[in-house]
Amino acid sequence: MMIKVLLFAHLKEQAGRSEMEINGENMTVGELRETLAEKGILQQDAVMVAVNEEFARDEEMVHSGDTVALIPPVSGG
């Protein structure tokens, strides 16, 4: 009943790890964002979310066993 969450860039540095697991079975991407915000992992909506390597909108479902990647905006220079 776990959802694997992969963290990149400043999210990885902020959490002190590159991946974590969230206890959950079925939730929307939006609900997952709220859960991560409560844990202090996610503060901004600009982060892209991919579920099983496909970009997902907030209303899409995440299921136990899925892998979710949080991809912050890339700044160029």
From TrEMBL:
The keyword tRNA-binding does not apply. InterPro entries: Beta-grasp_dom_sf, MOCS2A, Mopterin_synth/thiamin_S_b, ThiS/MoaD-like. Pathway: Cofactor biosynthesis; molybdopterin biosynthesis. It comes from the Bacteria. GO terms for biological process: Mo-molybdopterin cofactor biosynthetic process. Keywords: Molybdenum cofactor biosynthesis, Nucleotide-binding. The keyword Nucleotide-binding applies. One of its GO terms (cellular component) is molybdopterin adenylyltransferase complex. GO terms for molecular function: nucleotide binding. Heterotetramer of 2 MoaD subunits and 2 MoaE subunits. Forms a stable heterotetrameric complex of 2 MoaD and 2 MoeB during adenylation of MoaD by MoeB. During catalysis MoaD shuttles between the two heterotetrameric complexes. NCBIfam families: moaD (TIGR01682). Belongs to the MoaD family. Involved in sulfur transfer in the conversion of molybdopterin precursor Z to molybdopterin. PANTHER family: MOLYBDOPTERIN SYNTHASE SULFUR CARRIER SUBUNIT. This is Molybdopterin synthase sulfur carrier subunit. It comes from Heyndrickxia coagulans (Weizmannia coagulans).
